[in-house]
Design brief:
Pfam families: AA_kinase (PF00696), ACT_9 (PF22468)
CATH topology of the largest domain: Carbamate kinase
Number of helices: 12
Family: Belongs to the aspartokinase family.
Number of domains: 2
Shape: globular
Radius of gyration: 23 Å
Largest sheet: 8 strands, mixed
Order of helices and strands: EHEHHHEEEHEEEHEEHHEEEHEEHEHEEH
Protein name: Aspartokinase
Enzyme class: transferase
Distance between the termini: 32 Å
Number of strands: 18
Strand content: 15-25%
Oligomer: single chain
Bound molecules: aspartic acid, magnesium ion
InterPro entries: AceGlu_kinase-like_sf, ACT-like_dom_sf, ACT_Aspartokinase, ACT_dom, AKii-LysC-BS, Asp/Glu/Uridylate_kinase, Asp_kin_monofn, Asp_kinase
CATH superfamily of the largest domain: Acetylglutamate kinase-like
Length: 406
């Protein structure tokens, strides 16, 4: 069971979490609980690091930001004990959750389960601090990157061979799209790992993307459910599972959008071997995450246009990198646009169905929405459009693919 920041926001909420744990213990389960820091806590800790020293040492950053989870794990263990459930807190280093040395965004390398298994044998609930680990060589505390306690939970579920991993949050599952835009969005009973990866990386901010990757690789049955449900009688939430476990496969299962896009277009780029590398290698070296890339075949064999997108926060840096790269890349001019958003239609059923892209383009045209760029994968179609049309496009496509709640 994993509880996010809003689920452990204060002692009152932690008492509510204890009731959810009590239900599973009463059902006969050994339970490992992973907790986040109280909501807002990690942001506060990060701000303190910046205030103390803007060019902080990542090792000390980890020491500081890992502390939020230490508080909630102790509080939950105390609360459980107070209602008669044997429980013990575990920090990352005590489990141990072994990680790489990449402080601030470490990767889990191993989780020996002996300590937790001993606790289960003694009838104790293990309450584990999410987000943190230890780098075995230095013995120093590490953290897994923002939102990392989802990844902690899935990794621990895998390590102890859990029957399932329930991720409790403030929404009761994964929706076909953002319910704030489409009130008729529906909670899905099941979604395939691959679809969830697309939804998660496209801004359906329910789970950290890495946790979904991990769940997929280790086949951990993961539920997204709400801690705000009645602890006696909660909804099952959304199961993220293998596509074979989904009986009735729909062609399209969800519509995702991202307003966090910025478009950069290089016009009349000299079309010869090496130009794409001359643009994208420096961007990669600068750690800039490029998403869509569109290049056409040049008509005259001499020049072509290249368009790509980056997250808005990286836009300025990307522009600087491109300006520098222009000494190796002959191009006419560079155009940019921050007022764009990306809409994506997702579904593994697309693999075996023709015409999904065509109906998508037609529906957008019917609304007078111009498509600036298109990319596809075998389970996704993404279009870049003017940001002003985001809501209209999402609603139109949600209806088009029959996702509206009756
Ligand atoms: N507390 C950490 C964060 O806010 C980790 C997590 O909650 O998943 O990023
Ligand atoms: Mg989270």
């Amino acid at each position: 069971m994993k509880f996010g920041g809003t689920s452990v926001a204060n002692v009152e909420r932690i008492k509510n979490v204890a009731q959810h744990v009590k239900r599973e213990v009463a059902a006969g389960y050994d339970v490992a609980v992973v907790v986040s820091a109280m909501s807002g806590k990690t942001n506060e800790l990060v701000a303190w690091c910046n205030e103390a020293s803007p060019l902080y040492d990542q090792r000390e950053y980890d020491t500081i930001v890992a502390s939020g989870e230490q508080v909630t794990s102790g509080l939950l263990a105390l609360t459980l004990s107070s209602i008669g459930i044997k429980a013990r807190s575990w920090q990352g280093w005590q489990v141990p959750i072994e990680t790489s040395a990449a402080h601030g965004s470490a990767r889990i390398s191993a989780i020996p389960s002996k300590n937790l298994d001993d606790g289960f044998a003694a009838g104790e609930v293990a309450v584990i601090s999410g987000f943190q680990g230890i780098e075995p060589l230095s013995g120093r505390i590490t953290t897994l990157g923002r939102g990392g306690s989802d990844t902690s939970a899935v990794a621990i579920a895998g390590a102890i061979g859990a029957e399932r991993c329930d991720i409790y949050t403030d929404v009761d599952g994964v929706y076909t799209t953002d319910p704030r835009i489409v009130p008729k969005a529906q909670r899905m009973d099941r979604i395939a790992f691959e679809e969830m990866l697309e939804m998660a990386s496209l801004g359906a901010k329910v789970l950290q993307v890495r946790s979904v990757e991990l769940a997929m690789v280790h086949k951990v049955k993961t539920y997204v459910r709400s801690s705000f449900d009645d602890p006696e009688n909660p909804n099952p939430g959304t199961l993220i599972c293998d596509e074979e476990d989904i009986m009735e496969q729909q062609v399209v299962t969800g519509i995702a959008y991202s307003k966090d896009e910025a478009q950069i277009t290089l016009r009349d780029v000299a079309d010869r071997p090496g130009v794409a590398a001359a643009i994208f290698v420096p961007l990669a070296d600068a750690n800039i995450n490029v998403d869509m890339i569109v290049q056409n075949i040049s008509a005259d064999g001499a020049s072509t246009d290249i368009t790509f997108t980056v997250p808005q926060a990286e836009f300025q840096r990307a522009k600087d990198v491109i300006e520098k790269a222009r000494k190796d890349v002959v191009c006419d001019n560079v155009e940019t646009n921050m007022d764009v958003s990306k809409i994506s239609v997702i579904g593994i059923g697309m693999r075996s169905h023709a015409g999904v892209a065509a109906t998508c383009f037609q529906a957008l045209a019917g609304r007078g929405i111009n498509i600036r760029a298109i990319t596809t994968s075998e389970i996704k179609i993404s279009v870049l459009i003017d940001a002003a049309y985001t809501e209209l496009a999402v609603r139109t496509l949600h209806t088009l693919y029959g996702l509206d709640k009756a």
